[in-house]
């Protein structure tokens, strides 16, 4: 997304940082199988906040037909 990690892990509610955080949480939880507690700790937010972000990220991925491999330019 081109957003620096310190912005993603921050508490801001700007549209682009929320989108990036949601995608990070979705892919971290669903693709990598990371526990929500780990994601919450790394991002400095609560577990329920991560849960909501995962759901928001799922909607973004579906709506925009995003694939993590395509964004990272790797073959899976």
Task: Explain briefly what this protein structure is.
This protein has 76 residues and is mainly α.
Describe the structure.
The protein has helices at 5-8, 15-31, 36-43, 47-64, 68-72. Helix 2 packs across helix 4 and helix 3 (36-43) crosses helix 4. It starts with a helix and ends with a helix. The protein is mainly alpha-helical. The longest helix has 18 residues, at 47-64. 68% of the residues lie in helices and 0% in strands. It is built from five helices and no strands.
Cα-atom radius of gyration: 12 Å
Supply the helix-strand structural class.
mainly alpha
Percentage of residues in strands: under 5%
Main pleated-sheet profile: none
Count of helical regions: 5
Query: Are there runs of 5+ residues with pLDDT below 50, and where?
Result: none
Molecular shape: globular
Average pLDDT level: 85
SSE string: HHHHH
Strand segment tally:
0
Distance between the termini: 19 Å
Helical content (DSSP H or I, runs of 4+): 55-70%
What is the topological layout?
Layout: H1 5-8, H2 15-31, H3 36-43, H4 47-64, H5 68-72
Helix pairs in contact: 2-4, 3-4
């Amino acid at each position: 997304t081109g957003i620096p990690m310190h912005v993603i892990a921050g508490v801001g509610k700007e549209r682009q940082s929320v989108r990036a955080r949601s995608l990070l949480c979705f892919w971290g939880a669903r693709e990598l199988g990371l526990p929500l507690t780990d994601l919450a700790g790394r991002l400095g937010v609560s577990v329920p906040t991560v849960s909501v972000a995962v759901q928001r990220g799922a909607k973004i991925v579906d709506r925009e037909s995003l694939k993590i491999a395509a964004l990272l330019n790797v073959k899976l």
